Amino acid sequence: MDMKALETISYGMYIVSTKNDNKNYGCVINTLTQVTASNVLVSITLNKENATNQALRESKKCAVSILSEQATSELIAKFGYFSSVDTDKFQGINIKDSDGISVVTEGACGYLVGEVVNIVSCDTHDIFILRVTKAEQLTEEKPMTYRYYHEVLKGKASSKAPTYQEETVSGGKKYRCTVCGYIYDDEKETIKFEDLPDDWKCPRCGVGKDKFVEVN
Ligand code: FE
After folding, report:
1. How many angstroms is it from 84 CA to the middle of ligand 1?
2. 188 CA distance to ligand 1 centroid (A)?
3. Most buried residue, 15, 176, 189, 213, by CB count within 10 Å?
4. Do the beta carbons of residue 77 and residue 67 sit within 8 Å?
5. What is the pLDDT along the chain (216 residues), one digit of tens a residue?
């Protein structure tokens, strides 16, 4: 199977947020699709191991922020590579309340709020069907596509995303970020990993050098 063909499928970039037991949960997804038009239903796909999935099963209500090209890689890394269980992803970013849900407005050109009407189990992931109860456009900025995220922000799918593909490593000295999987390849860089300054950060998720391990 030519996995390259799958990379040509178009997606957007979104942050799903929900509140359960008075705690905020949120994660990045690239899988939102409008299902029906008149009585608006959308579908989103979440990994079964994701804390946001478990929270949404119980809260049955969430917001989906539509990220624009203004969204930073730090924002996407925060919601994409860390767990809501041990990280307060909502700390220090712009949010607004909508019926008790913290909607991420930072880097977003709009958002939807919806109620879960159906959950379809698909192997590692669940498709949540949402009935949209509220929608608001926030800015005129262009929505970010998954391709833009890859090509301009140099982003990569989290290991829990349905579109995740493992990076292959061959020859030379390479280092892998244990948080996001980013590979630093000495052969392709002008500075060797060992010579990078101590405050150097992973270009994809923002963690320090200490989170990198050498891979062969
Ligand atoms: Fe990283």
Report:
1. 17
2. 17
3. 15
4. no
5. 998 898 889 999 999 999 999 999 999 999 999 999 999 999 999 999 999 999 999 999 999 999 999 998 889 988 988 888 888 899 999 999 998 999 999 999 999 999 999 999 999 999 999 999 999 999 999 999 998 988 887 767 777 788 777 665 556 789 998 888 888 998 888 888 998 998 898 888 888 999 899 987
Q: How far is the CA of 176 from the centre of ligand 1 (A)?
A: 8
Q: What is the pLDDT of residues 82-116, one digit of tens each?
A: 888 888 899 999 999 998 999 999 999 999 999 99
Q: Closest Cα partner for 95 from 146, 34, 25?
A: 25
**Which residue type, as a one-letter code, is found at position 73?**
S
Distance 33 CA to ligand 1 centre (A): 28
The CA 48 to ligand 1 mean position distance, Å, reads: 22
- Distance from residue 125's CA to the centre of ligand 1 (Å): 23
